[in-house]
Amino acid sequence: MVQRQRDRANPLDADPAACAPQGAASIPREADSSSHRGLRIFFVAVVVGFAFGAADQYLGSRVTLGLWASTVSTASAPWLVLPFLFGCSQTRPRRAILLGLVVTMAALAGYLAAMWSPLEGVSLAQLGAEWPTLIRSQWANICGGLLTGPLFGLLGQRWRSSRSWVSAALVAGALCLEPLARWATGELWPPTFVWEIEVAAGAVLAVCFLVSGLSRDREIAQ
Fold first, then answer.
1. Which of 12-26, 113-127, 148-162, 185-199 shows the lowest per-residue confidence on average (mean pLDDT)?
2. What is the mean pLDDT of residues 11-32?
3. Tens digits of per-residue pLDDT, 172-188?
4. Is 14 inside a domain boundary?
5. For residue 79, which of 112, 111, 47, 40 has the smallest C-alpha distance?
6. How many domains does the chain contain in total?
7. CB 167, CB 220: distance < 8 Å
8. What range does the domain containing 182 cover?
9. What value does the mean pLDDT of the chain take?
10. Residue 206 in domain
C-alpha cells in the first residue's frame, strides 16, 4: 500500500502531456488544422478552375445547342468573377492573390485541355507535336490571366475584409459593362438575351454588394 502511494506521487512517472499547460497541446493541433485547410482551398481552386475552363470550352464547341452556347463561351466577365469569389474566402492579401492566380491558371489549363482532347477529335500524338502552337495561340489570354487572376483575387479579399467599394464596382461593372464594350468593338454576338442575362446578374450582384456594405457600415457605426 505504501509502495503504491509512493509510485503515484513520483513526478518522474507523470504523463508529460498531462503536466503541460492546457492550451499548449492544442496549439500544434490548431496550426496543423489551419495548414490543412489552407492546402484544401488550393486543391479546390485547382479542381474548380480546371472544370470551369473545360466546361467553357466544351460549351463553346457545342454548335448543336444553338448560338447561345458559343456566345456564353465568349463572355469574359465570368473569368473575373471566378478569382474574386475565391479571393473572398481569404483574410490575408498574399494568399488571396496567390489563390486568384492558381484558380485562373487552372481554368486556362482546363480550357486548353478541352480544346485539344479526344472530345474535340484531337489525338494525344497530335497534342504532343502541336502544344507549342497551342500555347502561342492563347498567349494573350495567358498573359491576361496572369494579371487579372491575382488582381481580382485581391479585390475579393478586400471586399471581405473591409467592404471595399472599389472591389464591388469593378466586379459588378465587369458584368454590366461587358456587353457595351463588345458593342463598341463590334463583337456583341447574338443572341442578345445572353448579354441581357449577364447585365441582370451584374445588377443583382451590385444590389447585394450595396446591401452588404451598408449593413457593415451600420454595424461599425453602432
1. 12-26
2. 50
3. 999 999 999 999 999 99
4. no
5. 111
6. 1
7. no
8. 39-221
9. 84
10. yes
